[in-house]
Amino acid sequence: MKDIIIELFAQGKYSQIKNEIGKMNVVDIAQLFAELEEDAIMIVFRLLPKEMAADVFTYLSFEQQQYVIESITDKETKNIIDDLFLDDAVDLLEEMPANVVKKILKNTTEEKRKLINQFLKYPDNSAGSIMTIEYVDLDKEMTVKASLEHIKKTGVDKETIDICYITDKARRLEGIVPIRKLILNDENVIIDDIMDKNFLSIKTDDDQEEIAYLFKKYDLVAMPVVDKENRLVGIITIDDVVDIIEQENTEDFQKMAALEPSEEEYLKTSVFSLAKHRILWLLVLMFSATFTGNIIQGYEDILETVLILTTFIPMLMDTAGNSGSQSATLVIRGLALGQIERKDALKVVWKEFRVSIIVGFALAFLNFFRIYFFVEGADFLISLVVCLTLFLTVVLAKLVGGILPIIAKTLKLDPAIMAAPLITTIVDALALIAYFQLAAYFLGLV
Amino acid sequence: MKDIIIELFAQGKYSQIKNEIGKMNVVDIAQLFAELEEDAIMIVFRLLPKEMAADVFTYLSFEQQQYVIESITDKETKNIIDDLFLDDAVDLLEEMPANVVKKILKNTTEEKRKLINQFLKYPDNSAGSIMTIEYVDLDKEMTVKASLEHIKKTGVDKETIDICYITDKARRLEGIVPIRKLILNDENVIIDDIMDKNFLSIKTDDDQEEIAYLFKKYDLVAMPVVDKENRLVGIITIDDVVDIIEQENTEDFQKMAALEPSEEEYLKTSVFSLAKHRILWLLVLMFSATFTGNIIQGYEDILETVLILTTFIPMLMDTAGNSGSQSATLVIRGLALGQIERKDALKVVWKEFRVSIIVGFALAFLNFFRIYFFVEGADFLISLVVCLTLFLTVVLAKLVGGILPIIAKTLKLDPAIMAAPLITTIVDALALIAYFQLAAYFLGLV
User: Fold this and answer.
1) Which residue stretches, if any, does this entry annotate as coiled coil (chains A, B) (predicted)?
2) In terms of CA atoms, which chain B residue is nearest residue A432?
3) pLDDT at residue number B438
4) pLDDT tens track for A90-128
5) What is the DSSP letter of A51?
6) Which residue of A has its CA nearest to B268?
7) Interface check B275 vs A, CB under 8 A
8) Given an 8 Å threshold on Cβ–Cβ distance, is A363 in contact with B334?
9) A225 - beta bridge partners?
10) Which of B130, B151, B169 marks a domain boundary?
């Protein structure tokens, strides 16, 4: 479809484009725009059916949104801004340069401008910054029939009418009623009798992580947002929550790989910004690896006497790191999904201890034979020292990996920060100390 | 609330429980059950309002579901099974032991039994295994008024009526219409005139990853599932997709931490099963780390001559691993979210190359001064060798980390498998070879 439009454009068949494009999904049209040349963008944009223009506009990249606003007339700007949902308008204003912001605000109604200003004050990632104000509100005295008529009259602009909200004179939220209940009930039934008074709501300054958690736990599709006086100020819908979930996951992936989290898409991020998000943690970890180096240096005489011990250092360090991050990942993920809580700390330790005994024994057992029979210069005692270290390392790594994320959570730190890289550094050091102590003891090198 | 019920139960105030529990959310009631003693479960379960019993039942753990089914009468079983949505009934049957399955099937209607059997044939994680068959279907000749009456008559059992589906005589899907459109349009409008004929649909054997991708891309709340003849067989709703998204993310987290993926919750997984999911990759990585060890062994004479070089091995290996997994994580995540595609391979390489030059230079520069001025026994040449290696290592690690996931994708392997642990092993080896070669050259040790 995309290719057909591009083909039609090359042939100058604009009226045909006008016909075809109306049948496309707005998301696909926005993707089409990403492939158009600058001069083509405005021509095709003006061919869009009027009711689709604002919808397509919200799916464009910020660069293209800027280009469109800069190119259109004041009247066209007004039309688009009028059709934008408030949360999309706010997102737009936050990203545009001053001249574009000016043009947008000039073509916004006084009322909408006030609302936008209010929205801009909510903290990043709070319920207030995510919510939309386009919802249906009803009065509890209304009948089903009156409610449906009210929705018919006012509902066209609402982002979701699947759930309606019932407020009192002071705009305090009293109940919710899904639209299906309106349809399934008799015309004369009073809303008060069918509305759900046991609803969940969130406050404007609640964090998006908490919101996502509630949506998942209770299988919600929408949730009302109230202010401190319990007045309804907006709603959050599931499609925004899906984006939040992916964003929170991306953040965890990044933290667990020693990256400072960033919301930007990889291909759209500048080289400088990518580098900036990586350097800090690499420096921290590089300097902490110095301690591991110091441990090796501290046992130089042992290495000098039995140089073959050096050969096994990478294997011990890698296994330590991998064992630790396996445990850490499971616990971090469990914490993120609410399946593990702080009170489970002892259960986790006990579980990791038993798992590590099995895993450690299996690895050490297999490795012993490999080293004893196949590594030149490794006698029984050296094989024993390496494998005892391996066993001990796996046990320590799994205990540290299992407990550190929970400790982080208790200290109100993000458990993901405690993941792989930091745990690797710690268990590397533990592994080496165990290694040299065991070597000194068994090989009589003290 | 939970504590109040437990308190009331201890006091034997059952009628009060009956009052209070009806006001609770079914998810919270299920959590309450998780804290009840076995003998209390059945008493409280029977106090539930009839219309809530099946709902609460679906949120119980499999152990508790089994206990409930084993404890109730045939008639009670029939009531619950009748009220269960088909997809929940199928999930239940898949987890129950033979005797419970028998009891359930005995109390299921002939018609539902047939449907269940059909569902059990769909492959795991396919659209067919996730979909529900409770949807509203309409005829395109119907008026809005007739449609609303039809929904009123049949809609009570439907999992979602927010979107209605229009099929022809052969049950082929012709269009969709959101319920809001029915409400916003005039009573006499014909469905054919307002239904959306450009809808997205999926096939029964499409994979859940693809489904989640489409929901996210097009901001959907429900999607029709059709068979090979384009006949409507079910729908998938956003609440199931949210679970799929989290499951796919969990899988990626696990793969990236060298775990064989598992869907079970950590605290509910046996020690043996946890160990099993960890051992394989640890073994593979342990034995591949042997190669790293062999590299060290191959350069033993160099180490013997300048033993201080050993000190820097952990730092070089750790930085290599961390640099590589930073890049790999960003690319793997970009691939998973559809923000990076195979055709972007060269863009990624070029980006990683430039980033690695900046990062590598910064790390090497800072480290040079630390080593030269603060590490005893490290002269100018040794500091230079270490820092040149560090620079080269960062560049190599970032290139390998950036490109390996894309190669995996091209080979139809899961990019996440290529992540941190495997990349660490590869870049460790590269780092050590670079180290010893540079040392041999600059320190004249060939």
Assistant:
1) none
2) B314
3) 93
4) 888 888 888 888 898 888 888 888 888 888 888 888 999
5) H
6) A339
7) yes
8) no
9) A202, A234
10) B130
Mark whether B153 and B28 lie in a shared domain.
Answer: no
Residues A283 and A432 in one domain: yes
Over the stretch A411-443, which tens digit does the pLDDT of each residue have? 888 888 776 677 888 888 899 999 999 999 988
Place of tokens 């406050």: A203
Predicted confidence at residue A306, as pLDDT, reads 82
Average pLDDT, chain A: 88
Residues B204 and B55 in one domain: no
Tokens 């003693």 label which residue?
B37
Domain holding A160: CATH number? 3.10.580.10
The reply to whether residue A271 touches residue B355, judged by beta carbons under 8 angstroms, is yes
One domain for residues B276 and B408: yes
Q: Which of B198, B267, B293 faces A314 most closely, judged by CB atoms?
A: B293
Q: Is residue A315 within 8 angstroms of chain B, CB to CB?
A: yes
Q: Chain A residue with minimal CA distance to B161?
A: A180
Question: Does the CB of A52 have a partner CB in chain B at under 8 Å?
Answer: no
- Residue A20 has a pLDDT of 84
- Mean pLDDT across the stretch A389-402? 94
Question: Per the structure block, which two tokens stand in for A370?
Answer: 């490999």
Please give the residue range of the domain that contains residue B67: 2-130
DSSP category for residue B60: S
Does residue B246 form part of some domain? no
**What does DSSP assign to residue B268?**
G
Chain B residue numbers touching A246 (CB-CB < 8 A): 216, 245, 337
User: With bands split at pLDDT 50, 70 and 90, how would you rate the model's confidence at B361?
Assistant: very high
Q: Give how far the C-alpha of residue A252 lies from the chain's centroid of Cα atoms, to the nearest Å.
A: 7
**For residue B345, what pLDDT band results from cuts at 50, 70 and 90?**
very high
> Which CATH number characterizes residue B30's domain?
1.25.60.10
Looking at the DSSP bridge assignments, the partners of residue B73 are none
A205-255: per-residue pLDDT in tens?
Answer: 999 989 999 999 888 889 999 999 899 999 998 888 999 999 988 888 888
B276-295 pLDDT tens trace: 888 888 888 888 888 888 88
Q: Which of B267, B367, B430 to mutate to test the interface with A (most CBs of A within 10 A)?
A: B267
Residue A243 lies in a domain: no
Residues B2, B23: Cα–Cα separation, whole Å: 12
Q: How confident is the model at residue A22 (pLDDT cuts 50, 70, 90)?
A: confident
Q: State whether B285 and A148 contact (CB < 8 Å).
A: no
Q: Which residue of B has its CA nearest to A241?
A: B242
Closest approach of B102 to chain A, Cα-based (Å): 30
Whether residue B164 lies inside any domain: the answer is yes
Q: What pLDDT score was predicted for residue B251?
A: 87
User: Are A8 and A104 in a shared domain?
Assistant: yes
Window A:144-163, CB contacts with B under 8 Å: 148, 151-152, 155-156, 161-162
Nearest C-alpha in A relative to B337: A246
Query: How many angstroms separate the CA atoms of A264 and B17, rounded?
Result: 51
Please answer yes or no on whether A266 and B340 come within 8 Å at the CB atom: yes
Strand, helix or coil at A87?
Answer: helix
Best of A52, A271, A393 to substitute, by most chain B Cβ atoms within 10 angstroms, is: A271
Instruction: Round to the nearest angstrom and report the end-to-end CA distance of chain B.
Output: 76
Average pLDDT value for residue range A138-160: 84
Rounded distance between C-alpha atoms, residue B59 and residue A203, angstroms: 27
Q: Kindly tell me if the per-residue pLDDT of B421 is higher than 80.
A: no
The pair of structure tokens assigned to B328 is 């790999």
Express each pLDDT in B291-314 by its tens digit: 888 888 888 888 888 888 888 888
**Shared domain check, B320 and B292:** yes
Least Cα separation, residue A308 to chain B (angstroms): 7
- The CATH code of the domain that includes A419 is 1.10.357.20
**Exposure of A153 by Cβ count < 10 A (0-12 exposed, 13-18 middle, 19+ buried)?**
exposed
ipTM score for this prediction:
0.82
Total domains in chain B come to 3
Inspect the interface and report whether the beta carbons of A25 and B239 lie closer than 8 Å.
no
Please indicate, yes or no, if residue B183 is contained in any of the structural domains.
yes
Q: In what order do the strands lie in the sheet with B173-178?
A: B136-138, B163-167, B173-178
Are both A96 and A181 inside the same structural domain?
A: no
In a shared domain, residues A145 and A215:
yes
Rounded CA-CA distance A342/A403 in Å is: 10
